[in-house]
Amino acid sequence: MTATAPTRDVLLTCPLDCPDACRLKVTLGAGPDGTERMLKVTGDAGHPITRGFACAKTVHYPARANHPERPLYPLRRVGRKTDAAPQFERVTWDEALDDIAARLKDLLDTRGPRSILRYNYAGTMGLREGTHVHALFRALGTPELEETICASAGTAAWAMGYGTRYSVDPQDVAHARLIVLWGINSLSTNSHLTPHMTAARKAGARIMCVDPYRNRTAAFADEHLKIKPGTDAALALGVMHELFAHGWTDDAYLAEATEGADELREAARPWTPDRTAEVTGLSADDVRAFARAIGTTRPTYIRVGYGMTRHENGGTNLRAVTLLPALTGDWRHRGGGCSLSASGAFKLNRTQLGAAHLVQPGHPSVNMNQLGDALFPDAGLGALVVYNTNPAVVAPDSGRVRAGLQRDDLLVVVLEQAMTETARLADYVLPATTFAEHADLYTSYGHHYLGYNPVTLPAPGEARPNSWVMQELARRLGVTEPSMYWTMDELLAHLLDTDHPHLSGITPERLKAEGSVRLNLPEVFLPYAHGAETPGGKVQLTPAPTYSDPHEHAGPEWPLHLITPPAHHFLNSTYGLLPNLTRAEGSEPHVLMHPEDAATHGLQDGQLGTLRSEVGEITRRIRVSDATQPGTLVLEGTWWGLSAPDGRSVNEVTAQTLTDLGGGSTFHSMRVAVTPVQAEQPDPVSAAD
Ligand SMILES: Nc1nc2c(c(=O)[nH]1)N[C@H]1C(S)=C(S)[C@@H](COP(=O)(O)OP(=O)(O)OC[C@H]3O[C@@H](n4cnc5c(=O)[nH]c(N)nc54)[C@H](O)[C@@H]3O)O[C@H]1N2
Ligand SMILES: Nc1nc2c(c(=O)[nH]1)N[C@H]1C(S)=C(S)[C@@H](COP(=O)(O)OP(=O)(O)OC[C@H]3O[C@@H](n4cnc5c(=O)[nH]c(N)nc54)[C@H](O)[C@@H]3O)O[C@H]1N2
Ligand code: SF4
Ligand SMILES: [Mo]
User: Fold this and answer.
1) Cα gap 3→5, rounded to integer Å
2) pTM for the full model?
3) In whole angstroms, what is the distance from residue 166 CA to residue 172 CA?
4) How far apart are CA 661 and CA 341, in angstroms?
5) What is the DSSP letter of 332?
6) Sequence-separated (6 or more) residues with CB below 8 Å from residue 608
7) Which of 116, 474, 481, 582 could form a cystine bridge with 139, CB 3.0-4.6 A?
8) Could you give the CA distance from residue 109 to residue 69 in angstroms, rounded to a whole number?
9) Which ranges carry the 4Fe-4S Mo/W bis-MGD-type domain (predicted)?
């Protein structure tokens, strides 16, 4: 990169799909052509959550924003979608938008709105560029996209017990005396929680981690329970058994704030430490000690991640775990309770956000975890408009997704900041702006601050915000829905048009002046101290969760369980194009395999293996390691397929199977077989030594 002198620092909210929603200090300076660009990213020292540091990935955001292959002009495909090297020609915005609008119009006239689908996710968490842009599709009446690929099982499970998703305030975690990190690799995926945990530890707190493998968070914790994947409901029931048996329940809280304690007590009765140990792979003594720690330490804070939800029984796993603080009464103690997501506290007026008011109950919908099926020729789609996501890599059964995207009779339009593997399969790539180049409002799922970003940098080339593209298409398609054409200020006024106390005193002017504003919550926020926002007003402990093994009948042809959790240096696939970050992750994706399994399956450290599941196969370097457990393979990171030895995404082996609750994704639940690859490629790690 050409050396350039910094000219000024600005504070902006990180737009990425991460609970921390950091307030970033972004250093700007003139680029080689003289226009101002992003040079450096750190954290705002004055922000109580960000505390002056950005994560190991987003410090590299400038390399993404200034990437030589970033699409800066509208591109139209020349050549076929199946060509190994995709080719595009530059066109004007008018050429691109006129042609796309004409083709959408033709589909609407001849085949109806069901022939068009939006496919989007949280590449930006901005309410304008991420959510309000759905208004175009609602105005056209195209199918709803059932979101999410990420949080549905957790959301549904939380709703059953607690209604609205509230979280312990991360700033209160320092008060906890036991911290349980359960199915979350928080040191990588929620790194701004760490200072609060360290403060708690200094004050005497113990930190325990429940995870199938020794990740960074397990190494940081004082104790690691290496649970068998998919068995968390059994462990939670085992803990409940001990809580009831030893009288460690808070009976006053159970009486005042919950419903169904007796039924839960009966359900937990059979879950003795021995039975729990048998199912979870832990020892009975570990189960007893874990239950004693939770039963006798106030406040206990449990941070759950989505890891345990990404299984066929995932909703129930999460529900069982999140009911524990209701039994111990931790919700009454500052720093006690449980966090999944804080998003429910942001009581914005969302009635017309994304033109939600146009969606009638029973409107046709497509579950986003089943995109592969939706793209199948018989399903009737003629056009797919993709924004804020990279489905050719991140969606389950990505082999099927890619085959669908390659259909010659499907119009694929991709709004992107990077030439992702999805963009490479597009008919049109429309260049998108980044968070410094467009205005937006951000909530958070890990803390209680709203963030506002103004337009800060000029858009490079002809990059445009998603909202601009949607409005231009809407005009060409004759859309008259007024919210479609709102400016940022009009959207902001709508979102803040509410009497809810959480937003009292928060005005557009204040948001613009302060940039980051804490919701108007009490200083000590104890959302479930006296009940919950369920229909009965109480924490619902029934129906009592039960454990079921989705792989009980898995045949011997699928001997191993594959989990595919996030990597430290990536954010989903967003940073997978930066060589320094792929190097930090070992230059290519690899699979952790326990020494016992390596011996059984005839594989050695550094060898390539083929992982086969019922939907596809991939080739990966095997790393033999006792960080994992016998029977469980771990593949960290949703790498670009282009970085893998076989050019394929890990999701070529994951399936479109949905979770028990919420219709969520099951990325950590695959049964696979592994065989050694005979023809060898050099191991990049040993080659570099
Ligand atoms: N560095 C980094 N940060 C990220 C992301 C990223 O890709 N990289 N992605 C962002 C996004 S979109 C999300 S949703 C979050 C996700 O962040 P997390 O919630 O931390 O990620 P998960 O995929 O849920 O996996 C978390 C842990 O769950 C474990 N796990 C898998 N199955 C089970 C199980 O059955 N039981 C238990 N107890 N544990 C299990 C995995 O081994 C893993 O260590 O992180 C966000 N932040
Ligand atoms: N095997 C496996 N697969 C997984 C997961 C896993 O743990 N294992 N995790 C799953 C989870 S939790 C999630 S959330 C999904 C995430 O999957 P995605 O939602 O696809 O997330 P990213 O891969 O980060 O891709 C986001 C894309 O949005 C683009 N983008 C960002 N901002 C903008 C913008 O303003 N405008 C436009 N037009 N584009 C923008 C970025 O350039 C990037 O290419 O992946 C899922 N897939
Ligand atoms: S990705 Fe998360 S931790 Fe990293 S800067 Fe953005 S919000 Fe902060
Ligand atoms: Mo996610």
Assistant:
1) 7
2) 0.97
3) 14
4) 17
5) G
6) 619, 620, 621, 622, 645, 676, 677, 680, 681
7) 481
8) 37
9) 7-69
Tokens 């059932």 locate to: 146
Q: 220 near 207, Cβ under 8 Å? A: yes
Nearest to residue 18, comparing CAs of 184, 156, 180?
A: 184
Locate all alpha helices (DSSP H) within 297-437, ordered by sequence.
314-322, 324-328, 371-374, 391-394, 398-405
Question: Which residues lie across from 634 on neighbouring strands?
Answer: 563, 592
Query: Which atom of ligand 3 is least distant from the CA of 50?
Result: 8
Distance 231 CA to ligand 4 centre (A): 21
Instruction: Pull the structure tokens for residue 247.
Output: 């009288």
**Three-state secondary structure call for residue 663:** coil
Show the low-confidence residues of the chain (pLDDT under 50).
1-2, 688-689
From CA 337, how far away is CA 223, in angstroms rounded?
20
Ligand 3 pocket check for 603: Cβ under 6 Å: no
In three-state secondary structure terms, 597 is helix
Tell me which DSSP letter residue 75 carries. E
The helix or strand, by DSSP H or E, that contains position 5, with its residue range, turns out to be: none
**What's residue 142's pLDDT?**
98
How far apart are the CA of 490 and the centre of ligand 4, in A? 29
Q: Per-residue DSSP letters for 134-173?
A: GHHHHHHTPPEEE--SSSHHHHHHHHHHHSS-----GGGG
Q: Is 538 left (phi over 0), alpha (psi -120 to 50) or beta?
A: beta
Q: Is 667 in the pocket of ligand 2 (CB under 6 A)?
A: yes
Helix ranges (H only) for 560-641 are 579-584, 595-601
How high is the pLDDT of residue 245? 98
By the 8 A CB rule, do 598 and 622 touch?
yes
Where do runs of H (alpha helix) occur along 340-465? 371-374, 391-394, 398-405
What is the distance between the alpha carbons of residues 372 and 487, in angstroms, rounded to a whole number? 35
- Determine the pLDDT at residue 688: 46
Triad 31, 413, 636: Cα angle to 5°: 70
Residue 572 C-alpha to ligand 2 middle, in angstroms?
5
- Asked if 281 and 231 count as a contact pair (C-beta separation under 8 A), the reply is yes
The token pair at 537 is 């007003």
User: Which atom of ligand 2 is nearest to 665's Cα?
Assistant: 10
Helices 261-268 and 232-245 cross at an angle (nearest 10°) of 110
Pocket test for ligand 2, best of 129, 148, 370, 390 (most atoms within 8 A of CB): 390
Which residue's CA is the closest to the ligand 2 atom numbered 4? Answer: 394
Rounded-to-integer distance, Cα 470 and Cα 474, Å: 6
Give 536's DSSP letter.
T
Q: Name the residue of 51, 55, 189, 578 to mutate for ligand 3: max ligand atoms within 8 A of Cβ.
A: 55
Spatial distance between the Cα atoms of 172 and 196, rounded to a whole number of angstroms:
8
**Ligand 2 mean position to 681 CA, how many Å?**
30
Minimum-distance ligand 2 atom for the alpha carbon of 414: 38
**Per-residue confidence (pLDDT) for residue 5, from 0 to 100:** 83
Span from the CA of 446 to the centroid of ligand 3 (angstroms)? 11
Closest C-alpha to 672, from 651, 689, 658: 651
H helical segments located in 569-677 = 579-584, 595-601
Which residue among 20, 181, 185 has the greatest number of ligand 1 atoms within 8 angstroms of its CB, and so is best to mutate?
A: 185
Q: From the CB of residue 87, how many other CB atoms can be counted at a distance below 10 Å?
A: 11
Ligand lying nearest the CA atom of residue 574: 2
Nearest to 376 by CA among 366, 390, 387: 366
**pLDDT at 411 (0 to 100):** 98
Token pair, residue 584, equals 């930090």
Evaluate whether 216 touches 303 at the Cβ level (below 8 Å). no
Using alpha carbons only, give the angle 394, 397, 401 rounded to the nearest 5 degrees.
Answer: 75
Q: How far is the CA of 192 from the centre of ligand 3 (A)?
A: 8
Residue 670 host element (H or E): strand 670-676
Please give the distance, rounded to the nearest whole angstrom, from the Cα atom of residue 150 to the centre of ligand 4: 4
